[in-house]
Specification:
Elements (H helix, E strand, L loop, with lengths): L2 E2 L5 H6 L3 E6 L1 H4 L8 H16 L3 E6 L2 H9 L8 H24 L5 E6 L2 H4 L1 H16 L3 E6 L13 H11 L4 E6 L4 E2 L11 E2 L1 E2 L4 H4 L14 H12 L4 E6 L5 H6 L4 E4 L8 H7 L7 E4 L1 H8 L9 E5 L7 E5 L5 E6 L4 H7 L4 H8 L13 E3 L1
Parallel strand pairs: 2-3, 2-6, 3-5, 4-5, 6-10, 9-11, 12-14
Antiparallel strand pairs: 1-9, 7-8, 10-11, 12-13, 14-15, 15-16
Length: 379
C-alpha cells in the first residue's frame, strides 16, 4: 500500500527522536512586505527550546535571505536578475543570522551560521568536512542554522530550493526526522488551492509514480519550491532511514501544534539496504557526464561487478577523475551512478581496450577499474 488514512499520535513519534531537522520556507519567515516576521520566529524559538529540553538535537535549514535583501535592492515587484539575487542574499543573510542569534539567545540557545553550496554535498571530501562541522556544533549544544550559499550559487550549480538541501543535511547527520514547515498542511492528491476535491494523504509508506504525480509547483511569489521539491526531499530522507513530516508552518508555535496532533503527512523511513557512501551516491543531484556500456557489461554491473574499460562504448561530458557520472546502456538509459577513476579525455582513448592494452598505453602496471563496484550504485 502506497499511503494510508490514519496516523499514530504525533507527540510520542517526535519525542522519541534524537536528532531533528526543521526546514523553514521564505514565505513563513518573510511577510508580504518583505520584512522579517519576528513574532513567528520568536514562537519557533520557543518550540525549539522545548525540544532541546527533552534532549533532542535540532538543526534548522532556513530560507529567507534573498527575500529579505530584495527590499533594499528595490526588486520586490519584479523577478531579480542572478546578480541581484546574489546581492540580495548577501544583504539578507546578515539580517537573518542576526535575528536568529538575538531571538534564540533569549531562550538560552547559541546558534551558528552554516552556508552550504551544492558542491558541499556533491563532492565527497567537502561532504565529509561539512558533516564533521555539523557533528561538532551539535556536540557543543549549538543549533546550526543552515542556508544555501546563494551569494555564489548560480542557476546551474545550486539546489534551487531548501527542501532538498534539508534532506541532504538529514542524510549527512543521520537525522531521525525531517520536518518541512510549509503553507500547506500536508500532501494532497492534487493541488488543493486549485482543486477543492483534492484528497488529503496522512501517511505515505513508499514514494512511487502515483505519489510523484500529486506534486505541483509553488503558488507563492516568495517561495522557490513546491510540492514536487518536497516529494524529492522525502525520497532522499526516507531512503536514508529518516522519517519526513510535511505540515503547516504558517501558524504560531508550529511544532507545538504538531505535537497536539495538528494535521500533517508522514513519509515513512525505508529500511537501509546500502552503506552510507552508496546512499550518498544514489541521491547525487549533479552528474558530470555519462558513460555508455555494452549489453554484456550491463549484465556484469547488475551482478555487482566493477566497470572495466573493455565494456565502455562511449562517454559524454567533461568529467575528471573523482567526478560522479551516470552509467548507461546502449539506449542511454541510466543503470548505475558511480565515481569515475579516469577523466573523460583519458577514458575516450582507452574505451573498449583490454587491461593489457591499457597498461601498455598508459605505461602503468596498476590500472584501476573505470568505476570500482565500491564506488558505484545500481539505480
Amino acid at each position: 500500500m502506497k499511503y494510508r488514512d490514519n496516523n499514530k499520535p504525533m507527540r510520542s513519534h517526535i519525542e522519541q527522536k534524537k536528532r531533528i531537522i526543521i526546514k523553514i520556507g521564505s514565505a513563513l519567515l518573510v511577510d508580504a512586505g518583505y520584512q522579517l516576521n519576528e513574532t513567528w520566529l520568536n514562537a519557533l524559538a520557543y518550540d525549539v527550546a522545548s525540544l532541546k529540553e527533552k534532549g533532542i538535537e535540532v538543526i534548522i535549514v532556513s530560507s529567507g535571505s534573498v527575500a529579505l535583501g530584495r527590499q533594499i535592492l528595490r526588486c520586490t515587484n519584479r523577478k531579480c536578475t542572478l546578480a541581484e539575487k546574489q546581492a540580495a542574499a548577501s544583504i539578507g543573510q546578515i539580517q537573518l543570522a542576526n535575528a536568529y542569534k538575538r531571538i534564540f539567545y533569549d531562550y538560552k540557545m547559541n546558534v551558528a551560521q552554516v552556508l552550504l553550496s551544492i558542491d558541499d554535498s556533491e563532492t565527497r571530501h567537502r561532504y565529509i568536512n561539512a558533516q564533521n562541522t555539523l557533528q561538532t556544533l551539535l556536540k557543543f549544544n549549538v543549533v546550526p542554522i543552515i542556508n544555501e550559499n546563494d551569494t555564489v550559487a548560480t542557476t546551474e550549480i545550486s539546489y534551487g530550493d531548501n527542501d532538498r538541501l534539508a534532506a541532504r543535511v538529514a542524510q549527512m547527520v543521520e537525522a531521525d526526522l525531517l520536518i518541512l514547515l510549509s503553507d500547506i498542511d500536508g500532501l494532497y492528491s492534487a493541488n488543493p488551492h486549485f482543486e477543492k476535491t483534492a484528497k488529503f494523504i496522512p501517511i505515505v509508506d513508499k514514494i512511487d509514480a502515483d505519489i510523484r504525480s500529486m506534486a505541483g509547483q509553488s503558488h507563492t511569489k516568495i517561495s522557490s519550491g513546491g510540492m514536487i521539491t518536497k516529494i524529492m526531499a522525502a525520497e532522499i530522507a526516507t531512503k536514508n532511514g529518516c522519517d519526513m513530516i510535511l505540515c503547516r508552518g504558517n501558524i504560531q508555535n508550529p511544532i507545538a501544534h504538531l505535537l497536539k496532533q495538528e494535521r500533517y503527512t508522514l513519509f515513512k523511513a525505508q529500511p537501509l539496504t546500502q552503506n552510507a557512501k552508496k546512499r550518498w551516491l544514489a541521491h547525487h543531484l549533479q552528474h558530470q557526464g555519462q558513460i555508455v556500456v555494452d549489453a554484456g557489461t550491463v549484465e556484469a554491473l547488475l551482478l555487482g561487478n566493477s566497470l572495466l574499460a573493455a565494456g565502455v562504448t562511449a562517454c559524454d561530458g567533461m568529467f575528471k577523475k573523482g567526478d560522479i557520472v551516470n552509467i548507461c546502456d546502449q539506449n542511454r538509459q541510466v543503470i548505475a551512478v558511480g565515481m569515475v577513476n579516469f577523466s573523460q579525455e583519458t577514458l575516450d582513448k582507452i574505451k573498449g581496450k583490454t587491461r593489457q592494452q591499457i597498461e601498455m598505453y598508459l605505461n602503468n602496471k596498476n590500472v584501476k577499474a573505470v568505476v570500482h563496484r565500491n564506488d558505484m550504485v545500481v539505480v
